[in-house]
Design brief:
Two copies of one chain form a homodimer. Chain A is an all-alpha fold and 222 residues long. In chain A, 61% of the residues lie in helices and 0% in strands. Chain A has eight helices and no strands. In chain A, helix 6 packs across helix 7. The longest helix of chain A has 26 residues. Chain A is elongated and about 55 Å long. Chains A and B meet through helix 6, helix 7 and helix 8 of A and helix 6, helix 7 and helix 8 of B. Chain A binds a DNA duplex (30 and 30 nucleotides) through loops.
DNA sequence: TTATCTGCCTAACGTTTGTTAGGCAGCGTT
DNA sequence: AACGCTGCCTAACAAACGTTAGGCAGATAA
């Protein structure tokens, strides 16, 4: 199986490559990987299909580049919050969790085009693509596992793992229904963090998530 | 846009149609919809590609049939539990929730091949396919919304909707990592139900979810 | 001026895809 | 015996796909 590389290359910024990357991310998100043709993609950026091979060695490499950037956004957002909420301080666990949940959701939705691929099309991506992106994903997941392990010292590692996967499922699935918008994302973040920590039976919910723009019927799916 | 029908037809049971349906469900789950070719699919059931058009009018109709069956499993499982846990009795809300969570996860994993499509490939399915399956989906979601509304009378409808979507995300994403097996699924169901209701800070977790066969590194993705 | 590199285009290639028209063996019914 | 239905096959179709080889205008450097 041929390896697929995509990271770096030259000085990173050339307008052509960047425009292809952005258009590809958007199309992969809207239509999926296989159903996106290089000809349509090229038309988006005012090129012809063959021309894109000057910037990317293959369609697979394009997907790898999109996914790598997406996961890089997530890792950077995590690191930023981790710096502000170090484990040493005796900050309440609930607040540390809330900060990380908010950061995850913000990074996810602010860079939706690049990050959503990890939710929607990583599973069925070509094997070579998955292999190329997996180290970055494992890295991010390991940070969360460590964090939750610190926050829940009396839970077994297996429980921590399953709780993390459940939390990821709750957060990441919002890609498919939560209307983008800072206020909305932050409100959902508070709801999820509060629910994850205190449960839903707790009557002391915050200021409330009213007027949330949830796509309640699913009919908005295009 | 041409409509796509698939439900019923004859007496339902003819070996040919049924074998195609099962093989298609499995292949769609493993490889995705577009990346599954009718020729490979036909080979699975010992046929040639053209022969399948005797049973299904198109590839899209095949996908519709798979998704319809999957959602039917879910609805039936819900109804079964709803009959045993009627709203009238003053059963603790926590127990009603736990029963429904367990039923959802069991139905999901016991019929994995048919149900998983709703998680993994509904979003990017052809528009005609989504339109054909959407009524069944809306029906199932409405049952859950009603249930959660009864269980959480002091939450706003918007909050209920978002909590449901979060719960669905946590449950449904397990399709991608939870090893099938009755014991495992039931243990995860108890963990999720307990976490959703009491939160993760509650120290009185049940007998514990040890030895859970979670695919912790994600490396198991094929 | 000449040479080199960047960035894109044209035109084609081989392959794979969903789909269809027509045929044919086996069976039960009349 | 003739008929019709079921269930599958063969062979081909047009369309779309990812990818490649070669070329060409413009800028930059020697």
């Amino acid at each position: 199986m041929a390896t697929v590389t995509a990271s770096s290359g030259t000085t990173e910024s050339s307008s052509g490559r960047e425009r292809i990357l952005a258009a590809a991310a958007q199309r992969f998100l809207d239509a999926g990987y296989v159903e996106t043709s290089l000809r349509d993609l090229a038309a988006d950026v005012g090129m012809k299909a063959g021309s894109m091979y000057y910037h990317f060695e293959s369609k697979d490499a394009l997907l790898v580049a999109v996914l790598e950037r997406g996961m890089t956004f997530m890792v950077e957002a995590f690191e930023e919050v981790a710096a502000d909420h170090p484990p040493a301080e005796n900050e309440p666990a609930e607040e540390r969790l809330a900060a990380h949940v908010a950061a995850h959701l913000r990074a996810l939705h602010d860079n939706r085009a690049f990050t959503a691929g990890h939710v929607t099309l990583f599973r069925t991506a070509p094997a070579a693509v998955r292999a190329a992106v997996l180290p970055l994903r494992d890295d991010y997941e390991a940070r969360w596992t460590t964090l939750l392990g610190e926050l829940l010292p009396d839970r077994s590692p297996d429980e921590v793992t399953m709780l993390r996967l459940g939390l990821f499922g709750a957060m990441n699935s919002s890609i498919e229904w939560l209307d983008t918008g800072r206020g909305t994302v932050d409100r959902f973040a508070r709801l999820v963090a509060g629910q994850f920590w205190h449960g839903v039976a707790d009557s002391t919910h915050g200021e409330g998530v009213t007027q949330a723009s949830a796509n309640t019927s699913g009919k908005g799916n295009r």
